[in-house]
Amino acid sequence: MLYKLIFSFIFVLPFFAAAQSNAERNKALRKERRQELKEFSKLADTSYYIPYHSQITGRLYLSRKTTSFSIKHISHNTDLNYKPNSTLNLGIGGTYKWITVNLAYGFSFLNFLNPKTELGKTKYLDLQCHLYGRKIIIDGFGQFYKGFYSSPRGSANAGDSYYLRPDVRINQVGLSMQYVINNRKFSYRASFLQNEWQKKSAGAILLGFESYAGNVIGDSSIVPRGLDSSIAKKNIREFVYYKTGPNLGCAYTLVYKKHFFVTGSLAGNLGFGNNTIISDEGRNNNFGFSTSVFVRVFAGYNSNKWAISAIYTSDQVGVNHGDLATRMTLTTTNVRLNLVYRFPAPKRIKKHLDVLDKTREDIEQKIHYDQLK
User: Fold this and answer.
1) Could you say which of 3.30.530, 2.40.128, 3.40.1340, 1.10.287 is the CATH number of the domain covering 55-372?
2) Distance between CA 221 and CA 277 in Å, rounded?
3) 278-324 pLDDT tens trace
4) CB 367 within 8 A of CB 356
5) Percentages helix, strand, coil for the chain, rounded to the nearest 5?
6) pTM given for the model
């Protein structure tokens, strides 16, 4: 009898205690989930999309970011495309409620997927912040690149080689904000962050503004003689620009059998600003209008636990060219492949994350109170 009691105490009782503990935790998680859906139904139509904000949306991803610029000769329609030799990055990240953290690095074992050394070397810091709220979308950019090559091979009279410009630099900062009309049925988060699940097709109108500022600078003429000898003789070494203005666009998510989705988004901007051209002739300021286009494409699979998605974003910023016969466009792209898994936050981590979320709520309430006074 004593041996049976000892055996039960050592082996059987801990098993039942663990099972009971898991059962109680699962019960608490189901209750939390029901409460989350109930509260969210006041903000959005849960027959179209549902949230997973109380869980951690973990992701493993591959990404490549680039900032390039092109110069187009208006009269004879020739292009010079300057591209960076950027790396493919492997990263991990997670989203909990409004908090998203992603960390990525271009590991050496990915070199077989990266461009060849004949494209020159590029040193860069590419900062992109994409905040996808239910109503507001904010995209922030900070690009600092040095070292470019011309594409395609042989452009700018480079023969069979690439025209390399290790001296050319791009510095650009920008901000884009958009309000999502029909946000009760359409979710950007479901396509980009996967911390929501869009179960039915829906679309939205986008309305907002954007601003950009930066410069393109080189040690010698940025426009080579192979593109336009008359402009090259001016020895234009720097373009300094800023622009701001409203944007308007639309987005639509097509859902197939609740799980498979394709999302497309297109927004156009008409901005007013100034482009300062610095050359041997001095500084030439040109005020005027220019256009920009922001394209986003998402596709993948979404479910209760797992998700996979491919993401492509391209922000093309047109710069006012003034009285020159060339037009310059800066393009920032982000290509990413995500593998996503959702899971409940461990108690210790959840405790600290909820403190951050409570702090955010207190700040929002304080701002709202100050606005009402």
Assistant:
1) 2.40.128
2) 11
3) 887 788 888 888 899 999 999 999 998 999 999 999 999 988 766 55
4) no
5) 25, 55, 25
6) 0.83
